[in-house]
Amino acid sequence: MSTQEIRTASTIANSAVDEALRQEVLLTAEPQAVLFSLFKRFKERAAIVTSGQLSGMVLIHLAAENHLPFRVCTLDTLRLFPETYAFLEQVEARYGIQIERIQPDAQEVQRMISQHGEYLFFDSHAKQEHCCNVRKVRPMQRLLKTLDVWITGLRRDQSAERGKLPKAELLSAMTHPILKVSPLIQWTTEEVWQFIRDNDIPVNPLLEADAHGHVYESLGCMTCTTPIRPGEPKRAGRWRWQNAAPSEENAKECGLHYSI
Ligand code: SF4
Fold first, then answer.
1. Which residues line ligand 1 (CB under 6 A)?
2. I need a surface site. Which of 37, 116, 197, 241 has the fewest CB within 10 A?
């Protein structure tokens, strides 16, 4: 589904998104219980937003297993790996769901390419952020207009920067309050893999290590993502040409989780 097709019928903010709700989520340990409570209350105004990586797949599985027909959305930057596009279809077939593909505005993309070129992100960190803004952040902002609750697969062990993220956060930058919830925030990579194996959950083949131990630990656009070697930080493969930047950790985020 394109951005234009995002459901617009339910755009009235829900006043129940407040500090009391945030506290309730913080005090609910089990991810299943968090999902159940949020779906019961918000239905189509809540969505799992995922790129189909490991913890996102755990959330999709938990929702399906508990008969919680959440909206599932993914940001389709139009630059994803062919394996990722194929994997999304596989996930839809396995769980009987339709994943909403949230795409950038075609005119904004065209304007950006005309002004800065197709591969502007190689020029500077600022241009990379501009591209991520056009292809990810603004489409996400448009999606958020239809939501009260944004559910993510973020985990603290994904990077030092993400180690500081809260499990539930009230976002106030939009026209109405939004609760951003990361039910698996404390899960480790090992716990996620164990759950995936125990439940036979599908995995994007790019996230499986090759014979040399090289693996995509963090998947994004094909142009900006490389595998990592054993021992490298999980997000080292993102925008690898920026590794020499003084604030390397900050350079490893697209702004999606820090500018909204
Ligand atoms: S990851 Fe790269 S191609 Fe994708 S939106 Fe960001 S800069 Fe653009």
1. 77, 79, 121, 128, 131-132, 135-136, 220-221, 223-224, 254
2. 197
Name the residue at shortest CA distance from atom 1 of ligand 1.
221
pTM over 0.85? The answer is: yes
Measured from the CA of 135, which atom of ligand 1 is nearest? 5
In 191-205, which positions are buried (b, 16+ CB within 10 angstroms) versus exposed (e)? Answer: ebbebbeeeebbbbe
Residue range 173-197, pLDDT digits in tens: 888 999 999 999 999 999 999 999 9
254 counts as catalytic: yes
Mutate to test the pocket of ligand 1, among 75, 109, 132, 218 (most ligand atoms within 8 A of CB): 132
What does the angle CA 61 – CA 63 – CA 64 come to, to the nearest 5 degrees?
65
Query: Which of 184, 190, 180 shows the shortest CA–CA distance to 156?
Result: 184
Architecture of domain 3-203: 3-Layer(aba) Sandwich (3.40)
Euclidean distance between CA atoms 59 and 30, whole angstroms: 12
CA angle 242, 246, 248 (to 5 degrees): 55
